[in-house]
Predict the 3D structure of the following.
Amino acid sequence: MLVHVKLYSELKRYAPGEDNVFMLEFPPESTAGDLLQTLKISEEVPRFILIDGILSDEKSLLTEGCTVVIFTPVCGG
Amino acid sequence: MFGWRGKILRVNLTKGMVYEEELNPQVAKDYIGGRGLGIWLLNKELDPHCDPLSPENIMVMATGPLTGTGAPTGARYSVMTKSPLSGGITCSNSGGKFPTELKRSGFDALVVEGRSEKPVYLWVNDGKYELRNAEHLWGMTTHETTNQLMSETDVKAKVACIGPAGEKKVLFAAIMNDRDRAAGRSGVGAVMGSKNLKAVVVRGTQKIQLADPERFKEFNRQILGRFNEEAKVTPIGLRINGTAGVVTATQNFGVLPTKNWQQGTFAGWEKIDGSELTKTYLLTNSACFACPIGCGRKTRVDELEFAGEGEGPEYETIYAMGSNCMVDNLAAVVKANYICNELGMDTITMGATIGCAMELVDRGYMKEEEVGRSLQWGDAEALVELTRMTGYREGFGDKLAEGSYRLAESCSHPELAMVSKKQEFPGYDPRGAQAMGLAYATSPIGGSHMRGDPAYFELFGIPKPMDRLAWKGKAKPTQAFQDHSAIIDSAGLCIFFTVRNLVEKDLEIAPTGVLEYMNAATGVNYTLEELAEAGQRIINIERLFLVKAGFTRKDDSLPKRLTEDPMIEGPSKGHVCHLDEMLDEYYAVRDWTPDGVPTPEKLEKLRISG
Ligand code: SF4
């Protein structure tokens, strides 16, 4: 299945090419953890994973055509 | 007393008198300081029905028991008064160095009453004080005023002052301290202007006595040690990109208010995001007193049209002046922020009011002739020009100076003002962060993220994640966040550090770290229950003041755009904010009546009278 991936803030550098927005192909039943592994984003790297706008974790399942956004956690005021 | 100075300075501007009062130790324990002390005083002495811009209004500037002690981010003070924007109580807080200096000058708080016939400023120098003529300062910007006052008092003095906007009683005028730090919200600067008080200048060298300095030092070592260890693994986002880094999160959750809250995402967001700010205009970061984070942004813009140097912008400014007005020109947003700082205005209400004006024009409810210029979505030049005109109440700026509610109402469309209790919201659309809607509606000061910010749970997962789209079960965590914010504000701490490092990492966020600092500093030996109860006491007495001023459940409201119109696009598409359902649950959790009034039993339990 095809997954849209968007990397922002400090995580842009893990993009496979120049562009921080790209598509990746995964077998069914793949998880966000599999995606992180593919991009070589190790466990220590602080990140937020959003699948279609929902805060998710490594175990969350990817779905056909979903958008996965990964960025450095922040908060503000 | 330890932690507290034990002294309050009364400033009666009508009589031109300044005198000292003792701080009652029981009041200090029950209300902590800062915001709590301020509301205790106002509840006792201020007529809730008074005109906020009349001499009857009282303005309290109060530090907390941890301000200036060296506790991390113990840098803050609060300004409490009746707000000319909302007509209710307000509390606006700020950091920098002024609050610490005020406390070191010998006082926990200043209580300003009456109105001076001529402009004056208050000069407090290590326990001595006097009112001085300020006619030569009237009309000066906040930066000019600060420079002038440092040169005529002491180069090491710290200044909190108003600019032209406060003098002209712009309803959202701010009090600026240390040049670019703002007690920004609800028009506290207009109240100061109405009193003809241009500035408060402080110089203090007196050390703050701690009850148990060893225990305090040891705890500080532990907390900062842990903080520094963690920072080695996880770079501090707030230091790198400031609060401006939040744009990435709100955009991708679909809660970045755009086009006067018609949308939750903005196509041009990457041009106004924190990492872009870091790349383009950031000179260096800056920190308040005793802050290990340093989220402040010292910036400079060289583009001719928008050239300037100063501090900011924060995330809230970027949403209000950027996405909300569909302006993707970061230089213009930074410039409008500089103008707000120099003229002394709140950037949130300023941007939100211009966004509202843009929609009024777009829908044909207001003519561009009335504005005196073109006013289209995304017009960077209009943003900067109208901001300046507002600070001086020039032309159409005179209308903008009244805030978005009064502007939209004058066009017979008050529903287009994105406000609660007539105060504009910070930048988190509650259709995609439900508890935030409840926090806005029940905040005592109207739209605010500083009176309780459950977006920390819902969007940032700090200290623990919570489903952002669910509305059931949101009352309890919202109440917890509000109560603990009251404690944090009153103690004189900054929420950014505290919520990550000094509370339990669950949805109840029990302030165990704050408790340890409080006890080491004051020697009062609070239990956790007593401290939590103090937070509740502050919230309830604020509510009591609002009830007396005539506020009811109908004022705990959100515009129907947020509760009835589903979000039209983005990751929060299809959702509305379920305020009514959450309100019932919330009043029950608070032991308030279904109309939002604290019960006599509740007030008695918290030992609140009046
Ligand atoms: S985190 Fe930012 S606002 Fe808070 S005390 Fe530090 S510099 Fe000031």
